[in-house]
Amino acid sequence: MDDCGLGSFLDEVSDGSLLRIDTDLGNGFVRLRVSEAQRRQAKQDIRCVEDAVIEMLRNARDAHARTVFLATARSADSRTVTVVDDGDGVPEDMRERIFEPRVTSKLDTFSEDEWGVHGRGMALYSIRENAADASVTASVVGGGSAIRAAFRTCDLPERKDQSTLPELSGSAREGWRLGNGPRNIARATAEFALSCRATCTVYFGSHVEVAATLRAYGRRWAAGLVEARIPVERIAPAKRIALCVDAAALSQCACDLGLDVSQRSAYRILQGEVEPLAPLLGILRERSSRDDGDARAGRDGVRDMRGLRIAAEDIDDFSAALKRVWRDLAEAYYLESDVEPVVKVSRDGVQVTFPASKQL
Asked: Can you give the three-state secondary structure of the chain, one letter per residue?
């Protein structure tokens, strides 16, 4: 009998207990095998869908993603979560192995944040242990990845209220903070986006909304990619949808990334009927500004008799947004990317200057 057959036989006759035990210590005590201890730890690491979402986002961040797109949908008792990023990517021969325990790219370092330690090689393993299915649907080394996970909410619960967006208050100067509200997927994503706003931008929405956003995101590179005749499997996942010219191709491309987009929805995207998403924090700030519109207008005053006036916290937000755009341009022309824009507000205009110096 081969090892597989022996394992199956032992599992059947002992209800799996023999394969989980390293040593029987007597009196009801046992020492578990390493594999069983890891499996139980993985189950403990993630107790709800929101925990899994945070782990998927942290995985993108630790892969040096600067832009992260998170799409989610609920159907009956199934919740799907797909994360597309522009990070380091995963080599072809590692797409399955990264879901094994203790597999990590962080040999010498690990990160610790408000959600705990990251870098043990357990995050993706924990996700797969708690998911009905989890896989790398697309990846290009140096160009990012797409990872999809499906959860049975009868096995892994989630908050009942998944439609309420969190409230955002404060300012760049005073510090942004989230108000009260259900600790749902949107809030988990907003907490991550707020914590990591200096290094990455997060988009959050439905599968169709994220597909429309990916199309808008990739269009700046689309012409060059077509001219270069690069095979689609070598194109960064976040840029692929921009190359689709008809609804059938767009629907298939989205599905290959792990986004459920019908041909009808793909057609609506191509016709411009689905608006691309704004960054999640921008959406929350806009909602907060609308709610507090009268008070804000009275405090800041967009224009008075002396000319243009812009609040300091809005200048800070504007500068942060410009820095993110500058990085793409700087990389294309080998310029220093980590520079502070100089924003000057005159009587009748706004002038922005970026110190430009070549990388050595």
From this structure: CCHHHHHHHHHHHHCCHHHHEEEEEECCEEEECHHHHHHHHHHHHCCCHHHHHHHHHHHHHHCCCCEEEEEEEEECCEEEEEEEECCCCCCHHHCCHHHCCCCCCCCCCCEEECCEEECCCCHHHHHHHHCCEEEEEEEECCCEEEEEEEEECCCCCCCCCCCCCCCEEEECCCEEEECCCCCCHHHHHHHHHHHCCCCCEEEEECHHHHHHHHHHHHHHHHHHHHHHCCCHHHCCHHHHHHHCCCHHHHHHHHHHHCCCCCHHHHHHHHCCCCCCCCCHHHHHHHHHHHHCHHHHHHHHCCEECCEECCCHHHHHHHHHHHHHHHHHHHHHCCECCCCCCEEEECCCCEEEECCCCECC
Residue 176 and residue 194 in contact, taking contact as beta carbons nearer than 8 Å? yes
Please list, in sequence order, all residues whose beta carbon lies within 8 angstroms of the beta carbon of residue 272, skipping any fewer than 6 positions away: none
Q: Please identify which residue in the block is written with the tokens 């009587």.
A: 347
219 burial level (CB within 10 Å; 0-12, 13-18, 19+): middle
Residues 221-276: pLDDT tens digits? 988 888 788 888 999 999 999 999 999 999 999 999 999 999 999 999 999 999 99
The token pair that represents 286 in the structure block: 């806009």
pTM: 0.72
Confidence of residue 196 (pLDDT cuts 50, 70, 90): very high
Strand partners, 57: none
Residue 336 neighbours by CB distance under 10 Å: 14
Say how many C-beta atoms besides its own lie within 10 A of residue 16's C-beta: 13
CA 92 to chain centre: 21
